[in-house]
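Anyone else keep sequences and structure tokens together like this?

Example one:
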Amino acid sequence: MRQNRSGRYTPLLMALCVAIGIVIGTFYANHFSGNRLNIINSGSNRLNNLLHIVDDQYVDHVNIDSLVDKAIPQILADLDPHSVYINAKNVQAANDELKGSFSGVGIEFTIRQDTIRVQNVIKNGPAERAGILAGDKIVRIDGKLFVGKEVTNEEAMRKLKGPKDTKVKVGVIRYGQKGVKEMTVTRGDIPQRSISATYMLDENTGYIRIKSFGETTYPDLLISLAKLSQENFSNLVIDLRDNTGGYLQSAVQMANEFLPKNKLIVYTEGRKSPRQEYRSDGHGSYQNIPIIVLINEGSASASEIFAGAIQDNDRGTIIGRRSFGKGLVQQQLAFTDGSLIRLTIARYYTPSGRCIQKPYTPGKDGGYEQDLLERYQHGEFFSQDSIKHTGPVYHTSIGREVYGGGGITPDIFIAEDTLNMTSYFKQAMMSGLILQFAFTYTDNNRIKLNNFQEMMELSNYLVKQNMVEQFATYADKNGLKRRNLMIQKSHKLLERYINSRIIYNMQDEESWNKYINLDDPAISKALEVFKKNESVPRKPEKTTSARKSHKK
């Protein structure tokens, strides 16, 4: 009887167990599949899973490393214009730009007609010690012919650079000699000069041209200042035009040399980076010397930090055109494969509280890249009234108005010279024909030009050679039709550019700077300001502004 009752409930119990099993199974299936989807849908794991799936299941073989190299820049580009990825093979070259030296043979070269042409030889460098001369053509490297389409800047650098004390064998063809001359160069440390010129503009005014902010910029500056001290300079021009920046610390050290104690130089701040201030320590040796800083649209980052510190502390006068506007701080982070990213972690702010960074739209860098062209078309390079100040007004230590919204606006504006500009001159420059002509002329006349050791001697000689006419004939044979009226109008610009390149080829960068500064309007204005004793800004009598004022 009992067995019958229990058997009667068996189907019911089985159905109940199945139902419970379905409920439990459904619960765990939903629970764990939900977790799995959550994991897959989180950003980093989705990327990892995608790469694994492609590697495991894609129809053709895929180089995953190459795929990653292409993907990472796209991701960073959606953040800001200055967060970048550098693959392992390009890391060395990227870091060499800011280091004080690199290991190589010690030549400056250009590539013409698929051949390396030695433009300059670094004094006391490995190439000079091996006997290589400016004008030599390098046609073989380590016993193998190196001419033709394979000759690119990248490939030439790869073959000529290398670890210190290693050897490279080069075969050169020299003007006036037959055959290929073989030479062995022992690679060595080649100094990277961040200061390209140090000399006296007149009996009172020293001049220093700084083209980048690298590891050795500050000690190099001290050497330059010591050199000028021996010539009893009492005023100083620091030229930062077309200086795209570099290390923050170098700019801070430089500003410290000219500021009294406890002056704010710059501060940085970001979402995960608390405000960090950089102040002067009062140990600078040139805290009282009258100073003028030259900037233009090519001055960026560390250049803007230095110019902003001088301007906001009312320490000196800024002359030129509005700077680029790069105020994002990058931190360098390395991957195990040797590649790295430079990730933006903060922003720079000048002492008055201005953010140096110009506006940008994340992921849309087309307008950002076109900014300088838009400034040019808007007329900002030619008229101070055309400068568009989109940011708020800030105030310097004595109450002068300065503007946010990107870049450093100079105290004294210098327009770009367009009076003698013609389409012929623009074509001559953009086509590279002036550079080609200058090198060809130098190469063909090197023996004669070697007789002129001083810049002015060489300049006076070149003026007598009617270089513009020689260039016009050369250009006409190489695709740029002669335009006599335009050539006449642009004669001064053409002569200046042609002669400057020949002087650079024959002498050095300092001689080139001395030559182009001879009739530079920014240099002339700086000397005028010093003569009037007006390099130190004066407190405005009355400060008014229709804009909202900010002070940090």
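And example two:
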Amino acid sequence: MKSIKTKIVMVVLMCSLISTVICGSISIVESSRAAKESSREQMKMICENQSQKLNSMMTQVAQSVDTLNDLALAELEDFGKFKSDAEYVDTYTAKIAPMLKQTAVHTRGAMSVYIRYNPEFTEPTSGVFYTRDSADSEFQEIEPTDFTMYEPDDLEHVGWYYIPVRNQKPTWMAPYLNSNINVYMVSYVVPIFLDGESVGIIGMDIEFSAFTDVLNESGIFSSGYAFLADEQGNIMHHRELETGTSMLDAGLDTVAAALSQPDQETVIRQYTFNGGKKSMCYVSLVNGMKFILTAPTSEFMAQAKNMQRLILIGALAAMVTAALAGFFISISLTKPIRQINTIVGETAKFNFTHYTSSEKLYKKKDETASMAHSLHDMRDSLRGMVENIKQAYMDMADSMEQLSETTEKVNTMSADNSATTQELAAAMQETADTMEMVNSTIADIRDRAETIRGRSDSGKNNSVEIRGRAEKLKGSTKSASQRTQEMYASVQEKTREAMEQAKAVSRINELTQSILDISSQTNLLALNASIEAARAGEAGRGFAVVAGEIGALADQTSDAVGDINGIIAEVNQAVSNMTACLDESMSFLEKTVLKDYGDFMEVAEQYSIDAAGVEDNMDDINNQIETLLTAIVNIADAVERVSQTTIEAADGITEIAGKTQEMSGVVGTNSDLIDHNQSNIDKLKEIVATFRMQ
């Protein structure tokens, strides 16, 4: 068995190990995070600072060319004359040329400066072009490129002119190799526009080494470096790759993908190049190129690994120190524990005599002194307990006799109580049976009430249907009554019109009378004409014939009028009959049909009112039945609870009876227990005698 000293040392070591592991893990994680963050911030800061230098150089070039553009526009006073007068163009060029040269001299890295005019209305070599072989030499004027030698779509040779003009905005051209002086250059070109029309371009070529010198100075950690790429993912400057190499061909597809995400600038990315893992961040320059700062990931993580190494060494030192401290602490702790263990051993042997060596333990101010005091108090308590046990067995002996008598009385009372509870349980069971019968009767009442409610619901539905039919009948009757009244009014109006039209027959009589009068006069005239023709003799014979015909016509007219009068008499009789019939129809409609429809409307109205009353009565019956059902349900629930309570009471009484019988049996065994306690008292007396109190 391991000693307490060994256990203390192990506990201290274990706690130290756990604390060291936890604190060390947290420290390693946090320090690694802080170191990584420091490396990220350092890389971002260098990337941004160096890119700002390049942007500053490019901004200076752009400002120089933009200033020249403003000056060129200010000097162009007559654009119309510029397009048509070659002499004016030469004079204008002479003014601009010194400005171009002076600006290029004061621009860092400038190798060429030029202004070219629109070849559509100027000479194909118009403009001015200054260049030099190196940054230390003087600018020399050379003949500009002849536009007639190349097509406008020949971007390789004249793209420096046509691309900015088509873009209609300042443009940074891609770096190119000037084969004449074997120097890489990058151009900034501004198109000159006046009133929306192209005048030409003005531009400047910068030695690319002015930018690559900044790249070569840009480093991080021990072997980190910077390189440039264009917007198409081609290398513009790299320590290990040639200019113009595609990053996809060079195995830098991860870098190319990162460059296509402009919102992820200065974000640290990981990639693999030539079998090694690297970290990089990038910034877009003002000319569209990408400044990329890269370093091996191992160097990027070097600071974090150094921090982890120092933390591990500190953790091991802390564990060794904790082990030594635990060893010496365990010695000082176990010595008083051994002394206390000796006293506990004597106590286990029922030896309660006082030890003088325990006085030193009491003087300590740690937990061992508290243990010693507690042990002393325990021994005093045990002494008191022994005395109390001694007194108790004496008192127990005195009470045994009284307990024996009391047990006998309880036994007798339990027997009587058991018989009474059995009778009560039987009565409660009979009550429960009666409640079951009542509950069954209530269930039957509830079923009948449910039937009545179903029939009342059916009656309510029928009353609703009757009311609907009454309303429909009422509506139909009302509509028919309205139509009858409208028909009566229409017939009455048409009758009045017919009566008025019948009066026209009398006017026909007047006309026929006039015709008869005219016919009589005509007949008389014909007779007179015949007399006069007879008097005329042979000369009046023809006139006599005409007079005869006129007389015959007059007779026919008289006959026709007679016929018309007969017909008119029949018409008058028909009109008289029609008038009488219409009067009878109007009288029937007014006195009989309209009155019957009024009575019918009253009946339909009363039918609707009676149907509504039936529906209300059915609602009242349904509500009363709902109330009755609720009351029946409440009564059934109450009866159910009473029945359940009765059953539970019967079960409780039965259980009480059983418990009473059981208690009677228990009480019956108390006598045996009393005898047994008496023997225990004798044993307690013997046990007390074994303790040494002095």
